[in-house]
Write a structure and sequence with these properties.
By secondary structure, the chain is mainly alpha-helical. Helix content is about 70%, strand content about 5%. The longest helix has 24 residues.
Length: about 325
Amino acid sequence: MIQLLLIRDSIKKVLQKYNLAIIPVLRFITAFLTFMLINGQLGYNEKFTSISMMVLLSAASAFLPMGVTVFFAGALMILHIYSASMFLSLIFIVIITILYFMLMRLAPGYSLLIIAIPVFSFFHLEALIPLALGLIGAPIAIFAMVPGIIVSVLFGVIKEAIKMSAGSMQIEDNLQTYIFVIKSLIENKLMMLMIVAAVVVFFATYICRKLAVSHSYILGIISGMIANLLVMIVGGLIFEVKTDILWVLLGTIISGLLSFVVQFFKYILDYSSIEHLQFDDDDYFYYVTAVPKLSVTTPNVNILKINGNEEAGKE
């Protein structure tokens, strides 16, 4: 454990020291993965699927606020859909605009989730976001998770709608396509199940993490993992939602392990050094349990160089 803590502290020091260089690199990687996912799901315009275009957009995103990356992602989706169906792009613009302004109005600090959730969902790590937010976030994050889940489901709905429209310019055909998109979102049982799972996992993790018990964060992660499995597997069977049980199981386990990494880099508590304090004021008597954060000090190693020839000459 001591070695792991030393490694963690070393990584934190490197991040702090080279912050100006590391953050743009991380933003570049995040943006590149996002644009790659969009091109893989909605690659209807070849001009925007080239590596050079993705690198250019990612490079611009690296030195700009994350809100710009969200804007680029939305614009890229709209351009791809417009290339396949002009009429369908209109309804997509309306939906994505409503979701974005709902996100910025209710949970502006979590705007990155609207693109992070689709990316993690692509790798079957849907449980990671609610688990991590349950450990380090606040309940307001729920209003950011819901738009992200809707966007991740919207990819598949738009692809089906484009197949239906087949480039038709007839008003009646496009009206049927609009109805299909709205109906597919409103009646999408999988999307509803994913939203319920995210909310339940978040609160299971968040509530357990807040408990005044030893290793509450471990209890929170385990509770969140169990909640995700129960909702996705049992809920899927009850409401007849097609889910891949193997991927749900593997994704939940990997998400749980990554959540332990998140907690490890946030802080680890030293439960062997718990202190119980008592004090009072004019109105109350207080009983306080203080749990120190576990940390180590990097040892300073002094190396003394002895020149054998000089010592021999002095003698």
